[in-house]
Model the fold of this input.
Amino acid sequence: MDISFGTHARTQAGPTPLRCSRAWDDAAAGIADARDAVATLLARVRPAPPRRAVQDARLVVSELVTNVAKHAPGPCTLSLELLPEAGALRITVSDTSTDTPLRRPPDPRRVGGHGLHLVAMVSRALEVTWLPHGKRVTATVPLTAGQE
Done:
């Protein structure tokens, strides 16, 4: 699949955000592809975000797409948008399930089930939007050092 980058017209002389979108018929096939899309998009950012911020963004997209693969098998879309003024990356994953994503309490003895907890820890914001045929989960990941 090609990565499609787009620009968004801005008023005045503000920066133009970088965007990327992807779609898969089966989310399981898109997990590694989603991580690569984040790395490719963030490689275009100048000045380059800190390595830790890139790792956090890749973790978030991996966890969100993995959740779709585990809990909402079927079509999945990914949208990435750099928010220059906010120093952040907005990651949006949509699926066809109407089930509410559940953030289980941390339990170091449990294998798995920590994804949404990790996403919430490294994201500035995490929200779920219900759609007519599924949902959209959006996380905003800071890209500057020292932001949490």
